[in-house]
Amino acid sequence: MKIICVANQKGGIGKSTLITVLAGALSADYGYRVLVVDADSQQTLAGVRLTNDQPSVDLEREAGTLAEPAFPYALESVGMGQVYDRLDEVSDDYDVVFIDVPGRSDDTAMIDVLSGANVVLVPVGASDAERLATISFMQLLQEISRLSREQGLDFQFFGVHSHRTNLKEEKDMDEFTDALGLPRLQASLRQLGCYKRLSTRYSYLNPAYRRAVGADASVEAEVRALCDELIARAQLTSELIS
């Protein structure tokens, strides 16, 4: 089981969006058994499922039109201090676990969750506030990486552009994060507008869903590139697929 934590000290930078896009595609289209753990006190992902997705599932079930399974991946709300207790219980049931954490890194529980992950994905943007948040967060990740190497543990971290638009500021951010030593994925989420209507039921690689949210075919290429690169970089090898 590979554990992927999506984290950044800056709120509103696209953590939940990134998890939703990746979890939906990896489970529905790539065949991985995926669990999403919502450990963020804002409960964005749990709220999307409960408020937006579950009512439509209930209506379809009542009408006898529900295609099982109703959701491509499991989603659980777990307190920060109980994350790994829960993962120990289900370690044989899933290939990939995504953990959504709060936008802070100044407590022991957060450090423990990050340290237990195999991969940390850091959504990055180009504003000054995002840059400052990335600096302090990088220092923490580099220290976790150093300790993990000393203990022979599998730990990697990567920056991911969560709303790339090819502005000059983003080129500056690339150079800035490279200088800091933040490895980054080349793939990114460019067309952020089409990702605002989040759903935990559908993958953006599903043509019918893309049409429903007004996303064109380029979104498929974008999501597939992101999944393929994550699979390669995080070593989500084929033997993990059920």
Automatic annotation (TrEMBL):
Provide the coiled-coil residue spans. none
Identify the InterPro entries for this entry.
CobQ/CobB/MinD/ParA_Nub-bd_dom, DNA_Partitioning_ATPase, P-loop_NTPase
Recorded hits in Pfam families, A to Z, give:
CbiA
Domain named CobQ/CobB/MinD/ParA nucleotide binding is located at 4-175
The protein in question is named ParA family protein
| Species assigned in the record | Hymenobacter duratus
User: From which lineage does this chain's organism come?
Assistant: Bacteria, Pseudomonadati, Bacteroidota, Cytophagia, Cytophagales
